[in-house]
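2024-03-11 09:14:02 DEBUG pipeline.ingest accepted 1 chain
2024-03-11 09:14:02 DEBUG pipeline.ingest length=293
2024-03-11 09:14:03 DEBUG pipeline.predict start
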Amino acid sequence: MSDDRAGRIAALRARVQKKLSTAESFVDSEENLEEIEVAVSSKQNHGREKERRIAQVLARRDAAAQTSATRTVAMWFIIAGSILGLMTGTLLLNGNPSDVLSSSLFEPPEHVDLTGSAIEAETGEAVGGVHIRIMSVDGTEEIRSTSTNDAGFYRIEGVKVEPLLLVAVLDDYVTIERIIMPDPAGEDPLTMTPGDGVREEGSLNDLDTSLLEGTVTLSTLIAILTIVFAFVGFIAASEAKRGTNYRRTQYLCGISLFSRGFIIFGPLMVLIGMAILSIAKDQFLDQDNEEVA
């Protein structure tokens, strides 16, 4: 009898333990389910936000890909200014040097300060007390005069820019007679040689040739730079059409202003294009500050 009772108690305990285990498992499963639901919900929200941002960027990219009428107008103004710059550079390259020389771009000032120095031929030391005379190119009229100081330098203010004769005289030294065109950058040093007599330096023909060569070199350099800046303008127009980077487009436009298309007309066209681009600023992709996570 006692054995039957003990068996029933043991069976009862087993059933109770099983129910308790089932209940605990149910509670654990409920808690896990809540955590899973929270994680899934968070992931879904993050996915939806990411999709929304991607959709916004793609929509903006599609809008930029379609060249707007505003950007098209700006692009053509920039192209027009760049073409004028290209024409100006080409004309400079193919122009007559004498015409370039007489243009206002290369017109020298009417008066400059004439400066220079005198040095000893053998020692290279400064020579003071050299009498400097500025005369008409034919040597018949003295215009101005001065002498070198102890450091060997001389300066004559307000000399008219035209071919002149510079005469340097010092006892026991060879007199120098030099044909010059007054230059604000200063004259070549006068090399004083011991002895007597006269040494002639330069001529009108050499002066004209030197001036012409310098003008041609300068005009060629300006022409090349003008053409380069014009091509930068074409790149800026391409960037305006693409609509990807507003700042880069405006920077390129600013550089293309130096193409100087017919002095002011080319830069004016580019400036108008830049102003129009500022109106269409929000159509450029780099103006979207949102990033896709």
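2024-03-11 09:14:41 DEBUG pipeline.report The chain is about 55% helix and 15% strand.
2024-03-11 09:14:41 DEBUG pipeline.predict end
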